[in-house]
Structures are given as C-alpha cells and as structure tokens.
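Supplementary Methods S3. Complex input for the LLP-bound model.
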Amino acid sequence: MFDLYLLKMSDYLSQQTPFYLYDTTLLHRTLARASECAGRHGYRIHYAMKANHNPALTRIISSYDMGADCVSGNEVAEAIRQGFAASEVVYAGVGKSDQEIRQALDSNILCLNCESLEELQLTAEIAQAMNKVAPVAVRVNPGVKANTHKYITTGMEENKFGVHLALVRQALDYASESPWLRLMGLHFHIGSQITSLEPYEKLCHRVNELWQSMDMDSRGATLLNLGGGLGVDYEDPETNAIAPFDRYFDLFAANLRVPSHLKIRFELGRSIVAQCGKLITRVLYTKKGINRNFAITDAGMTELMRPALYQSRHLITSLTSNGPQQTYDVVGPICESSDVFAKDVMLPETKRGDMLAIHTSGAYAESMTLNYNMRNRPGVVVLKR
Ligand code: LLP
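Predicted complex, serialized as structure tokens:
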C-alpha cells in the first residue's frame, strides 16, 4: 500500500513525486518531549490514529509508553496490529456501527467513549449478547469555545459530538445502573489546532464542576480523558518543531481539581506527528495569469486536503531553486477551483521540474488522502538520519 525507502537526505531528490517525507528523528524527539512533559504530572497520552496511521510512524509511537485513540473499528484493529496494547486503546465516534462495537468489545479495549444515550443502550445490548461487561466513558459536549476553525471545533452545542450538558446525568445514571456497562469516567474534546491555552482553562473549570456535581467518585469512576487539540506552528515549523507540551500539561495540572488517584489521559494527534512530515512535489508547469504567476504542482488537494477544506496555510519552500524571489499561486492538478495550496507565496524563481516542500504535512495529510480524479496513491519516504 505504500513505498518505504530508507534514504539519506541527499538521495530523495531523485524520487518519484509526489511523496510524503517523514523524519523519524524528529518524531523520536517529539515523543520523548511529550512523554516527559505528560509524565511529570502522571498523565498519559493516547496517540490519535486519525492524524496519521502510517505504520512507519505508528510502530515508533507505540514503542513509547502511550495508548491509542481511535475513531473506527479499522483504527482499533490497526492500532493493536501496530503494537499498542489493547488495554490502552480508547474508541470514540458519534456513529459506531453494531459491528464496530462488537469488535471493540471482542478486543478488550480500555474504554468506549459513548456519545449518546442510544449508543449506551446499544452497547449494553451488544455486551449482554456477548455475555461481557462493556467499559464505557460518557463523552460530554462541554460547551467550551475553542477559537479554532469551525470545521475542527467539536465541543460546542451546535456540534454533533458528545452528550449535551443537560443530558449528561441521564446518560451517567444509565451507565451506572446497567449490569452490562462499567462506567469508567468522562471524556471531553473541544477541538483541534488550538493555539491559545485559554479554552483549556475553561475546560478544566467545566471538568471540575462536572466531576463533583455528577458524583463521579461515588459512581466509582477512575478515568478522565481530556481529548487532544494542542496546536502546532504552521508558519514557522522549523523554529517551533516541537509543540509547547510543557505549557499544555502544566496548565491542566494547575487548573484541574479532581481526585489524585484518577487516570488522566490526553488524546494528542497533530502535535505528535504534524512537523515530522513534508509533502514533496514537483512543479509541472508555470504560467502567467492576469497579475498572477501560477506554479502548478504534481501534488494536489488529494494529497493534502487541509488548505481546500479549512483554508489552512502551510509553509511552502523550494528545494531546488535559489533565483530571485517572485510571488506565485501554488496550485494542484485536480479539476477543482479549490485545489490551491496557497496564494501569493514568495518563492525563488520557479520553473518546470523544480521541487517544493509543503511543510507540516505529517498530520491529517496522508490519512486524508483521496483518490478523486482516479489519482494514484502518493509514495512515502522515511528519513532516518
Ligand atoms: N480525540 C478526539 C475525540 C478527536 O475528535 C480528535 C480530533 C483528536 C482526539 C485529536 O486531536 P488533535 O490532537 O489531533 O488536535 N482534519 C482536521 C483535524 C480534525 C480533528 C478531529 N478530531 C485538520 O486537518 O485540521
């Protein structure tokens, strides 16, 4: 399904494009830092498989002391295949199928993060038929604004995720009373690419309030899962290659008021892998428009959908040219007007055959690949320095 090369930096220029270039040295450094900062407070990270499930990365991630966070039955199976302990896998999702619930229970994962009363009822029914007790947490929609793009906000009333605050008690009562469910605790997630810590402070206050008012201790709950969301620097990825894990975990430690015996988990995806990947592409053509220069690349929205879907901007640099600077619209070959990586990018004078690096493409790039326009799957180069 993917090509794996182990190359020296100087070799990769001859590779067929487009391809994702993964830097495992940076991945190790990131994992070491993230684990250290979480470990200081006794916290544990569950890597969010959705960010990137390439085995070249997940094999390394699972070798650290981390669990996995999954959002489909296939992700659960893949996480276990790639070395995460089943007992450290959590599974969220508003639309788990019967088969996916059955599979998760069969795999003996740590916890299903349930997102509605109906889902709890179905999970109990399936567990009973399997003569098992299902470990569940209730995912709460905390009504906390994340100040990020609206498509990656998850914890507001208008979002489909989690149980509305007004209905949490009902869901918890059901989970506490059903003989086929074991209530593990609460799950939250307010959004992704969150660069200010303020929303997390609000989340902590909400969590403190709920843990008390919902009598979580007397319900025997021991698990608190606070989701992911820590943002990365898309503008200056080289300077800030590692996300501010210290400030993120320290903030939770300073603001959470919950019993010290709780297992506290964080589902980080983007901040673990985003800076470890670049999308490498060749310029197929350059052309002039009215007041514009286009650089048309062989990668498109099918290999990196983020700019088209969230208007996100990734740093683009040239690997092969050092001519005078010019402004380009860097666009892909897909038959869609939204297939634009970035407008008005300053690049050294660019011609057919030049290679460009689109930075911060380790998260939500390869895992969101499409084969729209019947595109081939891009290659993968794994760099070990
Ligand atoms: N846990 C849950 C329940 C989630 O919904 C997500 C992301 C994560 C963890 C991981 O969050 P992270 O640490 O990666 O921010 N495709 C979008 C991002 C969608 C994120 C959805 N949920 C993008 O490219 O920006």
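The chain is about 25% helix and 25% strand. The mean pLDDT is 94.
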